[in-house]
């Protein structure tokens, strides 16, 4: 039998100027192109993380079903009925919970077979983006269905993912406080356009500040429960687990992270440089970003270029909660050589990106935000303008 062609889960084109493909349905944003973007990533350049083919839904036949033991009048909403509810627009980062996973040590540092190497998609910096999301509050939708005392709710997709437990729709079980928060949305627009198919047309969930994995796409049903529903099949891989975690904890609030607007391993001309980047946090606004540059003096021997090693970057506008802030830093008279650049941001909750050796290892490679090196070369024979 001829080999089956690979299934592409993604519908839109993903040209390599703007995307780095990390396997089926995992399209990372190429940070080398981000300098051209304003606050929002253009819709057709937003990273994509899909575990199965995007279902092509006919919006006229599509319904959002709302039910469960905590709902007095289970009902279905048409697309137009949702559009008729009060609309809310939020500027928010969407940052995959396992963004930057590739920087985690590949093997557990504990040397025990029980803790398997961190596998799955090897994202670098770009499983993140920001845009303006427009939709309705989940609270308004649930109130319209007669919400009663509830513990949590399951948000269930219309996709179909091949798992060890058979074919399952993607889903997320979320505590009721977060479900009812004023900035929890069912979004039908992204940057003023109907939700693109790869991002969940016609409707997806947005839990402000939480990992992108919570943002269920192609939503079909919300089950609201009096008694707590267990975590979904997918969430069991979205818990912090490892020798340093006596109990598994569901990863929710996004970490403080930052990245330079540069592709990895490029070569640039010597001389004065102005570096740009972005920093974001699920816990609030960014307060500070610092940059450290190291030069490779001999293979594997790195020396800091500045003294002290870290220099504060300039934030280019006022930082907003759960939205990225753009920053800039000068690098005078950069000489030919091989370098690695690192950034570290601090958010208003006082969280700061740690050195890699202070990262608490977890089995699923969630939440990496240690200093991550971006290597580049400086040469008179540059391949970049
Ligand atoms: N139905 C469905 N929703 C999903 C996913 C998925 O695989 N299927 N992936 C989640 C993950 S892990 C992330 S990071 C975000 C990515 O959203 P995006 O593709 O719009 O960037 O969608 C979330 N919602
Ligand atoms: Mo993700």
UniProtKB/TrEMBL annotation:
UniProt keyword annotations, A-Z: Metal-binding, Molybdenum, Oxidoreductase
Keyword Oxidoreductase among record annotations: yes
Keyword Oxidoreductase: yes
Domain Oxidoreductase molybdopterin-binding positions: 53-228
Ranges where the Moybdenum cofactor oxidoreductase dimerisation domain occurs: 271-367
Cofactor: Mo-molybdopterin
Designated name of the protein: Molybdopterin-dependent oxidoreductase
Organism in which the protein naturally occurs: Nannocystis punicea
């Amino acid at each position: 039998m001829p080999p089956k062609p690979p299934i592409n889960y993604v519908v839109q084109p993903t040209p390599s100027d703007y995307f780095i493909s990390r396997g089926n349905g995992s399209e990372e944003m190429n940070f080398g192109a981000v300098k051209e973007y304003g606050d929002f990533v253009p819709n057709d350049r937003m990273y994509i993380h899909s575990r199965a083919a995007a279902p092509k839904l006919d919006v006229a036949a599509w319904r959002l079903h709302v039910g469960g033991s905590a709902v007095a009048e289970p009902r279905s909403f048409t697309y137009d009925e949702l559009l008729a509810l009060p609309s809310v627009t939020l500027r928010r980062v969407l940052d995959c919970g396992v963004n930057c996973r590739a920087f985690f040590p590949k093997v557990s540092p504990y040397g025990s077979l029980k803790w398997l190497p961190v596998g799955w998609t090897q994202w670098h910096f770009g499983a993140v983006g920001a845009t303006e999301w427009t939709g309705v509050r989940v609270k308004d939708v649930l109130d319209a269905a007669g919400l009663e005392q509830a513990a949590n709710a399951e948000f269930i997709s219309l996709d179909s993912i091949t798992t060890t437990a058979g074919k399952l729709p993607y889903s997320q079980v979320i505590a009721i406080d977060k479900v009812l928060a004023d900035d929890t949305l069912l979004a039908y627009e992204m940057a003023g356009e109907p939700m693109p198919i790869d991002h969940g047309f016609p409707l997806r969930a947005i839990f402000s500040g939480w990992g992108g994995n919570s943002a269920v796409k192609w939503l079909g049903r919300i089950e609201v429960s009096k008694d707590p529903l267990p975590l979904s099949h997918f969430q069991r891989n979205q818990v912090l687990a490892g020798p340093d975690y006596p109990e598994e904890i569901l990863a929710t609030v996004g970490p403080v992270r930052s990245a330079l607007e540069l592709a990895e391993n490029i070569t640039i001309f010597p001389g004065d440089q102005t570096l740009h980047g972005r920093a974001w946090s699920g816990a609030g606004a960014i307060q500070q970003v610092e940059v450290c540059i190291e030069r490779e003096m001999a293979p594997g021997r790195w020396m800091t270029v500045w003294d002290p090693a870290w220099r504060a970057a300039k934030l280019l506008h006022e930082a907003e909660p759960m939205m990225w802030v753009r920053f800039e830093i000068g690098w005078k008279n950069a000489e030919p050589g091989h370098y690695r650049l690192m950034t570290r941001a601090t958010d208003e909750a006082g969280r700061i990106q740690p050195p890699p050796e202070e990262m608490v290892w977890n089995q699923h490679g969630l939440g990496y935000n240690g200093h991550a090196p971006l290597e580049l070369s400086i040469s008179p024979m540059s391949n970049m303008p």
